[in-house]
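User: structure tokens for this one?
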Amino acid sequence: MVDGFLGRWSQRKQAQRAGVPLDEPPAPTPAPVSTLAPIPAVAAPAPGEPPAVETVAQPAPEPAPPPPSLDDARQLTPESDFRPFMARGVAPEVRNAAMKKLFADPQFNVMDRLDTYIDDYSLPDPLPASMLRQMASAQFLKLFDDDNEAEPPQPPEPDHDHTDLRLQPNHAAGQVEPGGGAQRDADAA
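Assistant:
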């Protein structure tokens, strides 16, 4: 059998399945806080005498201050101490109000340019105007008013001087009659 935490855990699971009531340890009760706590002090004994124990009263620790409120958060300045507003017992709305006061200070209200969506993407700044004029989408959207659009661009004239590029007429092809394409091919066969 396993000792330690896993052994106790296994025994408790088996007891729960068997329906045996579990032995719950009693919850610790906090001791009452007294205002003066006795602390023993030892005085130097005389030779041959047993040491005498005296009790000295020591003041009790000060009670914790109450958690800050919204009024305290409204009175904050950039030079204030914000640590009490980050403690465990502070209400979330008080903590949020203190953080708003802190980040309203221009020192902390500066963008670090690491955020992806802070740029204005509606500006065509990255593309120069000359490159934007050449784009087909800019011409389609008619972003620029040009005088060149009045006359459509003409395709370049083919160069027929080269013998390999010269178009030759096909004299072997006959006249094609309308509507007789498939039937004429069947008659010829």
